[in-house]
Amino acid sequence: MNILFCGDENVCQGIFLSALSLCKHTTRALDFYILTADIAGHTPISQSYAERLRKAVQARHPQSTVTLFDISALFAHYVPRANMNTRFTPLCMLRLFADMVPELPDRILYLDADVLCRADFSPLYDQDLSHVEIAGVPDRYGKWFFGNLFKHDYLNSGVLLMNMANIRKSGVFQRCRDMCRDVRMFMPDQSALNKTARKGKLPARYNEQGRIKPDTVFKHFTTFFRFFPYVRAVTVKPWQTDRMHRELGIFEFDDILDAYQRSIDHETRNSDLLHH
């Protein structure tokens, strides 16, 4: 199964945790692809990190792979100028360059770095994509502000099963890049995808943006609102262990967090040995 992540060094821990959670819930080999870029204010993910991730996933399945692509040149050639200074990092828009990386396979599951897996995701990955370009779960809040309120068809882009063959054939990502370059949007890449792509709608269990339910497959740690004692936005990421425990009451990913910490400790010990 093919998995796509995007980002800079700030999401390295999230990618690592997400990858470990995927490995935990499948016996199939996983081919991980990471798109990164050198953009002002953002340090690209390093090859040494990709190598460390490769060792970790191959410890769980020897045939799994990790491939890092630095697409700085592509991004520089097609900068999304209208949306470089929104509250969302421009690294989010790297997924819109996936069609320009010929090494990426025809079917790939894109995940944000704050998405953790808690069950077998093969039924999602293996479903028919022949008539769509992307498939995803409706956005928790998007139905109130975007798309059709009754259809609830405005998708959250944190978990997207992508038919790269159809995407390359239709040129939909090129249209998205054009929009991000020319039109300022609140959630630029997500809004562009929703406006232009042929979409399939998935059940909420494949991108649960609220409380975890018994059938939840992917938990997405999105920003949400609390209304007592006052209205406020709350953002808790899976690598913020204490807050995840205290504010969300989520403990089920502790084994993944422990495995990540062991890998860090192992790398630190090896580094100390090399320096001595």
Secondary-structure element order, N to C: EHEHEHEEHEHEHHHEEEEHH
Intertermini distance: 41 Å
Number of helices: 10
Low-confidence stretches: 272-276
Sheet with the most strands, sense and barrel status? 7 strands, mixed
Question: How would you classify the quaternary structure?
Answer: single chain
User: How many β-strand runs?
Assistant: 11
Largest sheet: spatial strand order: 3-2-1-4-7-6-8
What percent strand?
Answer: 15-25%
Mean pLDDT: 92
Radius of gyration: 18 Å
Shape: globular
Helix content: 25-40%
What structural category characterises the helix and strand content?
Answer: alpha/beta
Structure characterization notes:
The chain has 276 residues and is α/β, with parallel strands linked by helices. The chain is 35% helix and 16% strand. The chain contains ten helices and eleven strands. A seven-stranded mixed β-sheet has the order 3-2-1-4-7-6-8. It has a two-stranded antiparallel sheet with strand order 5-9. A two-stranded antiparallel sheet has the order 10-11. Strand 1, helix 1 and strand 2 form a beta-alpha-beta unit. Helix 7 packs across helix 8. The longest helix is centred in the last third of the chain and has 22 residues. 39% of the residues are buried.
Write the layout of secondary structure elements.
Blueprint: E1 2-6, H1 12-24, E2 31-36, H2 47-58, E3 65-70, H3 72-77, E4 107-111, E5 115-117, H4 122-125, E6 134-136, H5 142-145, E7 159-163, H6 164-170, H7 172-182, H8 188-196, E8 199-201, E9 218-220, E10 224-226, E11 232-234, H9 241-248, H10 254-275
Parallel strand pairs: 1-2, 1-4, 2-3, 6-8
Antiparallel strand pairs: 4-7, 5-9, 6-7, 10-11
Helix pairs in contact: 1-2, 1-10, 7-8
